[in-house]
Amino acid sequence: MTRDPACQSTAHLVSRRSMLGNLVAGATGVGAIGRLVHPAVAGEIEKKKKQVLIFLLNGGLSQFESFDPKPNTDTGGPFRQIATAVPGTYFSELMPHTATIADKLAVVRSMYAQKVPGSHGGARDFVETGRPPQLGPNPLMGPVYSTVLEQPDELPGNIHIAPSRWGPRQDAAFLGPKNASLVLSGGRPPLNLERPESINEGSDDVRYRLRRIADLRFSQRRRTAHSEAYSASYDRAAQLIRQRDLFDIAKEPEKDQQRYGTHDFGRHCLLARRLLETGVTCVKVTHNNYDSHMENFNFHLEQLGEFDRPFTTLIQDLDSRGMLEHTLVMLITEFGRTPAIQPDLGRDHWPPNWSVVLGGCGIQVGGVLGATNENGTEITDRPVHVAEMFHTYLQAVGVDPTGVHELGGTRMPLGAPERSAVKELLI
Amino acid sequence: MAARLTSDVLAIPEFPEGEEYVEKPSSKVRSVPKFSLRELLATKLTGGETPEFARNMANRLWAMMMGRGVVHPLDAHHAANPPSHPELLEGLGESFQQSGFDTRSFLRELALSETYQRSSIAPAKVDPSTIAAESFAVANMKGLSPEQLLHSLLEATGSQGVFEKQVEDALKEDAEAWAELSADAEKLAAARDAKKAERVKEFITLFGSTPGRPEGEFQASLPQSLFLANNPALVEWLEPQPDNLTTRLIAVDDPADVGRMAYLSVLSRQPEDEEISLLAEHLQSRDDRRAAIVEFVWSLVASAEFRLNH
After folding, report:
1. Which of B303, B306, B310 to mutate to test the interface with A (most CBs of A within 10 A)?
2. Are the beta carbons of B210 and A170 separated by less than 8 Å?
3. Are residues A386 and A408 in the same domain?
4. What digits encode the pLDDT tens for the residues B77-96?
5. pLDDT tens digits, residue range A70-114?
């Protein structure tokens, strides 16, 4: 697909991200000097920075009620299909807004996995690590991206905007806690970001300095890996405390807050835009909950009714700001749902075939890859294994998925060695 | 992945339906099957036919004590990841097995070893960066466990009393429930314990490894450092409170005495002269003595020396 020529020009504008980046660099001084570059070359450098936006539709999105509708069949359910911006491609009528941006997306209707654990967590790990969880733990995509992509020193590498009650999780496996996702539970700022009333900013600087001196003394005649890791975690805390406005969407224009909607998912999408604009490498937004063992149709009517508009708004905003050029977008879910409709109108877990959607950086958009048969019970064209998709997610942002993580003597392959990226999806 | 135990390797007896149990399962009775694959596995693993099991267990206990496995990482115990000291590992496995898998005596032996008792400080004239972790030539530092960290923080800052009060205040938030609890000493004690367990769990969630996974090498995360810097409950331990460390330090004038009390309480050692002069300089530079003491105590509890078992 060629882009709207009007959009091309925006790529050359100085984005708010690079401006904020420089402001932050100015404020923190040491360690960020490398980011203070001549404005003329800033644009060039900017282009090379890649970002990733992940939508996780948690619980298992039904392919029938979204990207692979089968109306008027025994499995299709009650909803109609509607035309999209791509002639000949149809989505479920539950996604009218998303249908208008189908030309900015690539739909894969033939995703599959084998030997998937029955649990949601296990299946999710398969999708998000590209490995069966039985071979885990392996790092999720967020920690992988924040490790392999260039990222601003002064920002957390990957942030997970999660539903309420999702606490921090050690999701970086062998990449270690320092690469774990920063979880914004319920879209709220990280816990303990606010300095206690009794400690003012001056006092904070003093105590961090004293702490640092103590560590330097301690490290003089010892191996330093641990104490350095410990010190670095305080440096990152101090940086984040200075930048706590990062998480405050009230700072976004009122008009945008209305466009995205005042419900949780709308606010989370606006927050995702804010984080990406500031330069966070990988942002994941999780939308709960698609696990519709009963009342599948009402469930999807409600959930997708909430999802459809803010998702579309965010993609459109990234596009009009020229950010889709360097931002990979993916919409993933842990498995599909059964073609057979259960007696209580539910659909159960279904790993043999489901749909995922990609867009933005490195992706050949405006088409559909793979197909399922008439009533969606099996794949008829171009099966795509979850591990192949994992390779594709990396390749799209210019990372060689056949490479390795270097871990002090140990080397761990990025993608499953026996798989490779899906060439048809890549530019 | 481990090899599968299949029925052509192990004879799994079959019983007619309804006759599988010595004791049938019911809501009140714990079932006893006539044949249990898990029991067989336990017997096989510990029966002397599988030295791999003894070595794997010994390696995990070694890592618990020494901060690192002879095979490392612990969960990658396979041919492609050889032990740093093969003879040592073999000896450890054998001795653990011969003791009948007596964990206590095995740990005691490790604790008495020269390796365990080594300091993390490099010998004079040796550049510490040249010492490989897998050599065990100096002690490999370990992070305090989540439970150790909580209790050490309370002990170091003299905040047991403050902690008890925080627990009580939390219980008082529900006035109705509190009225009921304060009338029943037994219930109150149980409620206090439950509240304390919540705090312990908070530390485990934040500072521990993923459930079911071994603690790896020490690493520090952003939520952890934010917690140690700003958590309101923790900051209260550092503020002057009846009889806590900060209150006692504020009452002392001589910086050398402040230093001695603080270093002994928090780091269990005497301060060096240079540390005393740094402290004196700090106290003099601040108009607000209370703030100066709080800053100083925090810098000690937030230091690597406190956080790492060295």
Report:
1. B303
2. yes
3. yes
4. 888 889 999 999 999 999 99
5. 999 999 999 999 999 999 999 999 999 999 999 999 999 999 998
Report which secondary-structure segment, H or E, holds A123: helix A120-129
A112, part of any domain: yes
A117 and A134 Cβ atoms separated by less than 8 Å: yes
Q: Are residues A238 and A275 in the same domain?
A: no
CATH number at A63 reads: 3.40.720.10
DSSP A135: G
Mutation for A interface: B125, B226, B237, most A CBs within 10 A = B226
Q: Which of A8-12, A236-240, A318-322, B49-53 has the highest mean pLDDT?
A: A318-322
Domain layout of chain B by residue ranges: 50-140, 146-211+220-309
Pairing of strands A158-162, A182-185: parallel
Inter-chain CB proximity B221 and A178 less than 8 Å:
yes
How far apart, in whole angstroms, are the C-alpha atoms of residue B196 and residue B217? 28
**Domain hosting residue A228, numbered range:** 203-247
Q: Is the four-CA dihedral B203, A200, A33, A210 of positive or negative sign?
A: negative
pTM of the model: 0.82
Angle between helices A201-219 and A225-242 (to 10 degrees): 170
A221 and A96 belong to one structural domain: no
Statement to judge: residues A297 and A210 lie in one domain = no
CA nearest neighbour of B272 among A278, A221, A154:
A221
Domain count, chain A: 2
How far does B303 lie from chain A, in Å, by closest CA?
Answer: 6
Closest Cβ opposite residue B128 in set A137, A207, A222: A222
Place of tokens 């998937």: A116
pLDDT digits (tens, 9 = 90+) for A382-413: 999 999 999 999 999 999 999 999 876 678 89
Tens of pLDDT, residues B273-303: 999 999 999 999 999 999 999 999 999 999 9
Name the nearest CA neighbour of B233 among A196, A391, A89: A196
Give yes or no for a contact between B46 and B58, defined as CB atoms under 8 angstroms apart.
no
**Whether A93 and A158 share a structural domain:** yes
